[in-house]
Amino acid sequence: MSMKVNESVDAKGLACPMPIVKTKKAIETIEPGEVLEVQATDRGSLADLQGWAKTTGHEYVGSKEANDVLYHYVRKANPEETKEETTFPHEVTNKELNEVKDQAGVTVLDVREPAEYAFARIPGAVSIPLGELEDRMKELDTSHTIHVVCRTGNRSSTAAHMLQENGFDHVINVKPGMSEWDGPTENDQ
Amino acid sequence: MGIQAITAAALAKKVIRQEPLFILDVRNEDEFKDWKVEGKNVEIINKPYFEMLDGVEEILDQIPSDKEVLVVCAKEGSSQFVADMLAEATGGDYLYLQGGMKTWSEHIEPVKVADLSDGGELYQFVRIGKGCLSYAVLSDGEAVLIDPVRLTDAFAAFLEEKQVVLKYAIDTHLHADHISGGRELAERFGASYLLPSADAGSVTFSYDPLEDGRTLTVGRASIDIQAMYSPGHTIGSTSFIVDNQYLFTGDILFVDSIGRPDLAGKAEDWVGDLRETLYRRYANLDRNLIVLPAHFSKKEELDENGRVMAKLDELYARNQGLNIEEEGAFRKKVTENLPPQPNSYETIRQTNMGQAAPSEEEKTEMEIGPNRCAVS
């Protein structure tokens, strides 16, 4: 699968510490919330990148392997996401979403980055990253009840507000979202 | 000031000589927890290199200035990177391990154990990073290798140096913690590869079945190698009495512990065999025999010459695993609260049966970590 990312780092053929050194440099060039792809052949990069992400607070989205190359995906930490945003008035829990998600007239809208969506999503969820929502919201059916999900409920809250201001009458924010989702998932692999 | 590489061989000498050494291990925490360099006078701390990309200031107060400091990582690059930063920050001298823990895992050190009758010689190969022990019995231009590990070039170099011809390569059992070099060495030198038939049920190659009571001879002067069926770690585990003086116990009996019965099936199935071997078969042997196991797990088991060996009598006196009188307590000891199984032990067994053929890189990867063949 080829994945839409904001930046890509080629660390193929390089041994540690270079994949991490290059990752660190590259992540400084992208915006918070954006996704970096790291291509590496050093198998040690698998555990080390996760360790590095944990120490630095960036989100390790996942990795895949193709033709002996490891593709890692890291989403740059966004300080704003840790702040409590203005909540959206209509909210449901993960559990409530799981009960209604398959009903007619319900759309699950996933506003995370394509890489996050690719590794684990609710089956049938529609992907429109938050940054593209303004241009692409016409793809959605205004008569549907739109359940908006992201990782922790913050991006989805922003998205829900945006949809409401643009004529969607049935918008619901899902809290907390994919970080604690224990219902069924699917992925690209 | 500056940084300098040291080889795994040089590090092994330092560990064996019990030299004081401070090690900064810059691998990630999980790798460090799994396995690290150990030695009597080795002080070691862990700080992943990726937490020091901006500098080493944070750990400077933990790095001593009055002893040698060695930086190690998985392969080499990160230790060099961190050692460089340390040298720059302090103006001191720092060592890094050439080839990293990968080469440490693969380094083997041949140590002479004893002279045998009629000019024969007995060598122990200590794979210090992993705790594997292999052996060579030499006599009159011929050699037998017992439990040789995958690093066949080291054995080939040894055979050439000693100018001996390999006659038999033997595995005391089907190994689960490391890849055997026995079959490859036998093929390379036109020798026989012996494996206990009870362990060889699923192997994909032909071999010379090792049966109870078989006697092998090396050299014209004929040093006896008597096979003795001693199941418990595996169903086929076989011991050897060499030159009527040495007892090769494989993974059944170690200097500080005893073998675990769960790596090739259910512990409950083999616990009776293990007890029978340790408390009857071995107990009835000459107590003056010197035990030579296939593993060690603690650095304390190495003597001042870097050898691992002990008199059978001594083990019956102080090895806990040989002193559990009550059968139920023994059963509990060898089936409950066992250490985690060796890394990749299933694929290692498949490789040793010829069912899997991993690449060299994959083999290295599979073998990283401690052997964990003992019950504790």
Note down, in words, how this protein is organized.
Chain A: Residues 102-187 form the Rhodanese domain. Chain A: GO terms for molecular function: transferase activity. Chain A: It holds the Pfam family Rhodanese. The complex is a heterodimer of chains A (189) and B (376). With 189 residues, chain A is α/β, with parallel strands linked by helices. Chain A has 2 domains: 7-77, TusA-like domain (Translation Initiation Factor IF3, 2-Layer Sandwich), CATH 3.30.110.40; 81-180, Oxidized Rhodanese, domain 1. Chain A is 31% helix and 24% strand. Chain A has helices at residues 18-27, 44-56, 79-82, 94-100, 114-119, 130-136, 154-165, and strands at residues 7-11, 35-40, 59-66, 69-75, 91-93, 106-110, 126-127, 145-149, 171-175. In chain A, the strands form 2 sheets. Chain A has a 5-stranded parallel sheet with strand order 5-9-8-6-7. Chain A has a 4-stranded mixed sheet with strand order 1-2-4-3. Chain A is elongated and about 55 Å long. Chain B has 376 residues and is an alpha/beta fold. Chain B folds into 2 domains: 2-104, Oxidized Rhodanese, domain 1 (3-Layer(aba) Sandwich), CATH 3.40.250; 108-367, Ribonuclease Z/Hydroxyacylglutathione hydrolase-like (Metallo-beta-lactamase, Chain A), CATH 3.60.15. Helices cover 27% and strands 24% of the residues of chain B. Chain B contains 11 helices and 18 strands. Chain B has helices at 8-16, 29-34, 77-90, 100-106, 152-162, 182-189, 267-281, 312-318, 327-335, 345-352, 360-367, and strands spanning 2-6, 21-25, 42-46, 69-72, 93-97, 109-115, 121-127, 132-139, 142-146, 165-170, 192-196, 208-210, 215-218, 223-229, 238-242, 246-250, 290-293, 310-311. A 7-stranded mixed sheet of chain B has the order 6-7-8-9-10-11-12. A 6-stranded mixed sheet of chain B has the order 13-14-15-16-17-18. In chain B, strands 1-5-4-2-3 form a 5-stranded parallel sheet. In chain B, helix 7 (267-281) links the parallel strand 16 (246-250) and strand 17 (290-293). In chain B, helix 7 (267-281) crosses helix 9 (327-335). The relative contact order of chain B is 0.12.
